[in-house]
């Protein structure tokens, strides 16, 4: 009897072992090329709208979704246009992508269920769609009168928005390689002197102004960037400024709110360095770069998520945390609006964004880039002298008439005191 039980157990174990070996064989090898991720569910739920595509799917994560199907016909039209400017054949492009298929699949953080043919087809149509968007943006002579994207500015802006979503990326290397494959056999020298880095730089010119980066950084960082979101991250993080890293717990580094700083007499000024992450405090003045929150929210949120999932650095993360410390209420935001720091947004929306932005950040103990700044702000707020001086100015010298009244009262008090002294002397 025992021998029979042992045989049954042995058979079960053998079956389980065979099942595991089958799973081992089905695993795709991990690769250091991985650079495109899904937004974690918990983060997505905090603000679904920031990470939901509006009109176009790029790459495999949202490929085939019914609500995005309308753009598939435009992709085929753009592919036809693209092929019309080069003698490189459709077959040449397909063979090229097929040879790069494994490398492309390795760029995604999960196994892509598409078969080889569907995957290659998707990459070609999506990559060429992006190339055409970049080309038509720089060379408006390529835009036909029947073009339904560039002739419709609002529709084009929706496409631009979707191109910066973390889940909606394909690697830069395939975009650049396909463009170069077309360029070496171009018709009528139509791409003469054109580079993918230059096309993307032109495409990002408006964004550079919004996030306060020099346009030249786009071309400089293009060769190292993995995709659009990574390119923006590199430009923002590697701008010309230096943040100090100090080993101090973040609990001691949390900054006072803008309202508390105002009550302590801190003045607020638009940052002079024109660099987004460069927030400075010196001699009672806090300099914060101009924040066009309504326009830059989606870009910053997607860069933050990519940094969190892919990078060792924490620049944008700590910037998000600092903003959430500073702007915790509409009153905080209103003070920044009054000082020209926040633009294009009303106070409730601005404070809501800052809080949501901070919630997507992660606290890394003993490593916070703004430790020195937060410590200086806290020390300034705790000074009784600063509080007394600020209270005097804000409550008694906040208008010319209030100042005159205080001065008059002081003069009257002095005259009364003088009269009293002389009266006592006369006795």
Give structural notes.
- The protein is mostly helical and 427 residues long.
- The chain has three domains: 41-203, no CATH class; 250-382, no CATH class; 386-419.
- It has 21 helices and three strands.
- The chain has helices spanning 2-26, 41-46, 48-51, 72-83, 90-99, 101-106, 116-138, 153-163, 172-183, 196-203, 205-210, 216-222, 228-237, 258-263, 293-310, 315-326, 330-338, 347-359, 371-382, 384-396, 400-426, and strands spanning 267-270, 280-282, 285-288.
- The protein has a three-stranded mixed beta sheet, with helices on one face.
- Helix 4 (72-83) packs across helix 7 (116-138).
- It is elongated.
- 33% of the residues are buried.
- The model has no long low-confidence stretch (mean pLDDT 86).
- The chain crosses the membrane at residues 401-426.
- Keywords: Membrane, Transmembrane, Transmembrane helix.
List the strand order in the largest sheet.
Answer: 1-3-2
Cα distance spanning the termini: 126 Å
Counting helices, strands and paired strands, the structural category is mainly alpha
Rg from alpha-carbon coordinates: 30 Å
Note poorly predicted spans.
none
Q: What summary fits the major beta sheet?
A: 3 strands, mixed
Q: Name the helicity range.
A: 55-70%
How many distinct domains? 3
Average pLDDT taken over every residue = 86
Quickly count the helices.
21
| Structure summary, number of beta strands | 3
Which of globular, elongated, flat, extended, rod-shaped describes the shape?
A: elongated
* Strand and helix order: HHHHHHHHHHHHHHEEEHHHHHHH
How large is the share of residues in beta strands? Answer: under 5%
